[in-house]
């Protein structure tokens, strides 16, 4: 009702081009319109958008470095703190638990205060948590520091997705989301290539302190260069009118079948590669398969490179057609299940190198496939609650990861009472079978919700 006067607003004192573009965009943006029917509301894209995304994604890359740092330090952590598999898995479980628990609160914060402020807070928490971990010499303080780190990590990915949604046209969002995941794998590459070497040449405290101090530069980058949205679409904090209550916003997102389908897609596709890369990959390759640390590190690097390749390919496919979503998801789930079935069923528990390479290449598709869940949520929710919906979906993969990390750790300790140095190939073989439980549950939920979403109009 207030848009019509804005259209007829040209006056002799105002240049002609501005009233036809900026006031309608600002007015509609201030109302959080989700219709996208007004041409002025289409984000501009271009160099400014890529700059905003690049600054935001630098925080996500930093977060992935922090998140995956324990993946190459698991054996060192077991020696430093004198702990077994269950306690070691507690580090990653707590970090992932905090991450998952923070997704809805972070989504609400992003919707209300904008991604820039949330990213700055995330960098502070990441740096503080990693710095405390660097100087921890006992299990308790180290565990608390990983919880702080998980809280900071939780604030990054959703914020970057929100930046992309405000700066890029909707048709580009699936591709930009995959590029975001691909860039995050660059952080994982830093962990497996640089951090693993630094840890063994420089030692525990100098290595983790250096990672923590990277946050100073990234914080300055965000503070100086990042804007939440293009100037013509920016909405001052508190200017968007009446806001829905938190409970109503979360409930509205949850009632949308596309959000729930997205959550289960994220849950089912992400956890195998996550659990392997975050914690259990290096111990499995070294202790169960008898590889050197250098050889195991090379295979973990291959996991990262595979992830980046699949991210680019899936991004192109999803940008070309939304119909590619479900075929990608089901193919990745089926390939992952089949690959692990072959590896774990191999006689003697020592599969050949080519099969290990094969399952690692397949797990590289897990992360990019999980982003399809966010596509479903983005397509089925209005823009004013995208942060909340993305938070709900993003919980899925990390809940699955947490369940898997814990299950494998408990089974390893049960099957190898002698402790962390005595995990056999047989123990790892049976412990890794636990993955099929969340895979089966998640696949059943995807097939169930898939029909509901397909039955919806649009």
What does this entry look like structurally?
This protein has 458 residues and is mostly helical. It has a single domain, classed as MFS general substrate transporter like domains (Growth Hormone, Chain: A), CATH 1.20.1250.20. It contains 19 helices and no strands. The protein has helices at 3-7, 22-30, 46-68, 74-81, 85-113, 115-135, 139-153, 157-167, 173-202, 204-225, 246-255, 257-288, 293-320, 325-345, 353-363, 366-380, 386-415, 425-432, 436-455. The chain is globular, with a radius of gyration of 23 Å.
CATH superfamily: MFS general substrate transporter like domains
Gyration radius, rounded = 23 Å
Query: Could you name the CATH class?
Result: Mainly Alpha
Structural class: mainly alpha
Count of discrete alpha- or pi-helical segments spanning 4 or more residues: 19
CATH architecture, by name, is Up-down Bundle
Number of E strands: 0
> Are there runs of 5+ residues with pLDDT below 50, and where?
1-40, 235-241
What is the total number of structural domains? Answer: 1
Measured distance between first and last alpha carbons = 26 Å
The proportion of residues forming helix, as a percent range, comes to over 70%
Please state the overall shape, judged from the principal axes of the Cα atoms.
globular
């Amino acid at each position: 009702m207030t848009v019509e006067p804005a259209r007829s607003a040209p006056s002799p004192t105002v240049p002609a081009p501005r009233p036809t573009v900026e006031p309608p965009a600002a007015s509609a943006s201030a109302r959080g319109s989700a219709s996208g029917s007004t041409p002025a509301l289409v984000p501009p894209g271009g160099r400014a958008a890529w700059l905003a995304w690049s600054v935001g994604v630098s925080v996500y890359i930093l977060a992935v470095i922090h998140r995956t740092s324990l993946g190459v330090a698991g054996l060192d952590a077991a020696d430093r703190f004198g702990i077994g598999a269950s306690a070691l898995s507690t580090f990653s479980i707590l970090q992932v638990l905090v991450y998952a628990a923070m997704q809805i609160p972070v989504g609400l914060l992003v919707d209300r205060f904008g991604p820039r402020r949330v990213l700055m807070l995330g960098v502070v928490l990441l740096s503080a948590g990693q710095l405390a971990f660097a100087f921890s010499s006992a299990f308790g303080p180290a565990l608390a520091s990983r919880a702080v780190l998980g809280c900071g990590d939780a604030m990054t990915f959703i914020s970057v997705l929100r930046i992309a949604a405000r700066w890029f046209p909707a048709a580009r969002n699936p591709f930009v989301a995959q590029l975001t995941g691909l860039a995050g794998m660059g952080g994982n590459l830093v962990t497996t290539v640089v951090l693993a070497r630094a840890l063994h040449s420089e030692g525990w405290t100098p290595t983790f302190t250096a990672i923590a101090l990277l946050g100073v530069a990234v914080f300055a980058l965000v503070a100086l260069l990042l804007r939440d949205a293009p100037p013509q679409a920016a909405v001052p904090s508190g200017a968007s009118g009446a806001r829905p209550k938190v409970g109503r916003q979360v409930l509205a997102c949850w009632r949308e079948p596309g959000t729930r389908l997205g959550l289960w897609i994220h849950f089912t596709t992400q956890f195998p590669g996550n659990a392997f890369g975050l914690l259990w990959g290096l111990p499995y390759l070294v202790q169960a398969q008898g590889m050197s640390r250098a050889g195991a590190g090379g295979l973990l690097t291959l996991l990262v490179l595979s992830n980046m390749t699949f991210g680019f390919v899936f991004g192109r496919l999803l940008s070309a057609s939304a119909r590619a979503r479900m075929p990608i998801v089901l193919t990745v789930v089926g390939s992952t299940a089949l690959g692990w079935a072959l590896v774990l069923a191999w006689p003697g528990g020592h599969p050949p190198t080519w099969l290990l390479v094969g399952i690692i290449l397949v797990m590289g598709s897990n992360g990019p496939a999980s982003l399809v869940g966010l596509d479903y949520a983005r397509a089925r929710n209005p823009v004013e609650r995208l942060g909340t919906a993305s938070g709900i979906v993003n919980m899925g993969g990390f809940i699955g990861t947490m369940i898997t990390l814990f299950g494998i750790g408990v089974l390893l300790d049960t099957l190898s009472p002698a402790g962390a140095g005595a995990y056999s190939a047989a123990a790892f073989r049976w412990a890794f079978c636990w993955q099929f439980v969340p895979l089966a549950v998640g696949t059943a939920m995807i097939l169930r919700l898939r029909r509901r979403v397909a039955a919806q109009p649009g």
